[in-house]
Amino acid sequence: MNVQFKKGVLNLCVLVLLDKQDRYGYELVQKISDQISISEGSVYPLLRRLTKEGYFTTYLQESSEGPPRKYYKLTDAGRAYLHEQLAEWRTFTDGVNALIKEGVQE
Amino acid sequence: MNKKKFFTHLKNNLTKLPHEERQEILQDYEEYFAIGQLDGKSEEHIATSLGSPKTIGKELSAAYHLEKAETTGSTGNLLRAIWAVIGLGFFNLIIVLGPFIALVALIVSGWVTGIGFTAAPLLILLNPILAPGTFELFDLFNSLALCGLGLFISIGMLYATKYFMNGFIRYMKFNGKLVKGGLTHVEH
């Protein structure tokens, strides 16, 4: 799939995954790549950018095995951004779906 | 590609970042490898699915420098940001460097005009020293008018320079989104 297209979607995917619970980077990447094919390394730059823009905070937490994990937590600004992006996404997909329904022969 | 190679390539593309920033990034990927291996994946497999460390490094560098240029607005930071964005691809060489050179030329010519006009009375007063007998009051008054105009132009340029540079940073950010599908580009 088209690169630009996925980029915007990836943003939304990360925000959506953090809405209910905090997650660590690996977990986020796996969750997303289970559903859509991405270059996994590109999620971290995205996480860094959104953190710098104030949408996430991070904290380290020990785990039962392996190194401590960096968890990402949605801030209030992040939650507002999520809802904004989600509304945009819905308008967009509704529009595209309407066109598909109209245009594609069954 | 194994883990060691991945990190070598990544580090090579992060050399322009401050130590702390670089350590943080490397730490993130270290964590990723460690958890992936606990998950039963091989180093090779993890490195391959992460994608090109070169691309990742370049994107992280460009993102860092752009943000820096935006928050501090110094010329050095702006130049570093331009350099990093150009590094993202050949196409950027044309659509970033081209407008930048044009913009700088415009700004420089504006400043030269402003400063030149402002200095006009001084040059008129120098004139009789270099060529005695050519002094005319008409020239002097004319030059004083130019001086006032030059001051206005210089003050205008002060604002224009700041405004243009901020605009250019925004342009580079927009360009990053347009050309690479964002500074975080996704590919498979």
UniProtKB/TrEMBL annotation, chain A:
Top-rank taxon: Bacteria
Transmembrane segments: none
InterPro entries in UniProt: Metal_resp_DNA-bind_regulator, Tscrpt_reg_PadR_N, WH-like_DNA-bd_sf, WH_DNA-bd_sf
Pfam (any one): PadR
Name of this protein: PadR family transcriptional regulator, regulatory protein PadR
Domain Transcription regulator PadR N-terminal: 14-84
